[in-house]
Amino acid sequence: MTKPSSGVPAWDPAQLPAQPPLHGAVTADVAVVGAGLAGLSCAYHLARRAPGLDIAVVDAERPAAGASGRGTGLLGPRAGPPIDRAVRRFGPSTARRMHLASVRAVEQVRTLCTRLDVACGLRPGEQIMATRARGGLVALARQARAYRALDLDAPVVSGATIRARIGVPYTAGLLHRTAATLDPAALTCALARACAAMGVRFYGSSPLRAVRPGRPRGAELVFPHGRLDAGQAVLAVNSSASALGLPVGTILPVEVYAVATAPLGPTAYEALGGRAGRALVDAVPLAPYFRLLPDGGLVAGGGTAIAAPDGLGARRLQAGRERAWTWLCRWLRSLHPELSQVTVTHRWSGRVGMTGDGLPVVGPVRGLPDVWYVGGCCGHGLAMSVAHGAHVAGALLGEPAPAGPLPWHRSAAPLLPVGGRARPVLRAYVGTLGGLARYTC
């Protein structure tokens, strides 16, 4: 059996615009740091709405190199905490607006894929949040009551219905009809090409070292071999915010894991909902999920996570990855008898930004006039990152938000004790959550 590619996602990076490293003194009307979905969405909407604006996108590596190109391609509605918690924290009206905003974000990505005319494997299909654990059933029941009270479309589905649609032995679930699956790297690269076609300049292999207030206004961005003076700046750097010392609260880097397989047999592919493009996400935090690919393969993720992985040695980190991938492979092979011998072709990890309250941070950076930050989508960034980029573009252009601010339109997340002695405690907590998730699955 061929050894799977470790560290390389299942997605092949598409053609990209030229990205020379940033050298010397460079200027721009708007600088976007981070060529993931949030940063590129911002640059794209700026270029569309304000032709002639001088926009520069700078990335530490290249477009789609980070979380946006390493996701598993699940496009579904979710922003912030579960709906019942959102009701308790923000009230029914705001909780309803939050959910509807996440539904619109899914629709906007589907529209964007059509507009870009990109072959990104987009397949509209249902997403089922399901469980077979008692704790998960209680959580789903609370969410179902909240969805009904808010008159939102998220019906309960029985275990029999789940088995008929996806063919796995789960007890109950909630059905999200506005959902899809796609190749996240293809979408990210398509946005980069569209930006370049509208005159956006790209710089690659240029990690941001520092951000300073500009003189007399704007921002000065410092890179290893040069600097960029911009009238406005957007830092779509996710969990790298802490390394830069940005005052945006705690955006905790958490490493998560995924595997992909060779094409399944036709029986297993159809039994697991392949033709309909359905996906299943376990309702227990950090529990695994899967979806099928247009070529007949399967992608699975979840089950394990490591908080603040930079503090681990290379050997310990790699050992943790091996354990995570091994467990995921065992889990996916338990889904259907025909998967017992399926070949795993890819194993990889990626980093998401987590916050203490489960909400992203999308807002101006305190103490840095004309600088905005986007990050901390807590693992639900495929749709919301695109929406956040569009929101920031509108704000930079002085456009009012169509429906007013949402709870994630803020300048900082809560601060968490993540350094020193607290770091191993935090890792242990996240590890415990993963252990509970694996136990229930």
UniProtKB/TrEMBL annotation:
Lineage: Bacteria, Bacillati, Actinomycetota, Actinomycetes, Kitasatosporales
One of the Pfam families matching this protein, by short name: DAO
Coiled coil: none
InterPro entries linked to this entry: FAD-dep_OxRdtase, FAD/NAD-bd_sf
Occurrences of domain FAD dependent oxidoreductase (ranges): 29-393
Protein name as catalogued: FAD-binding oxidoreductase
Domain of life, source organism: Bacteria
Gene Ontology terms: cellular component: cytoplasm
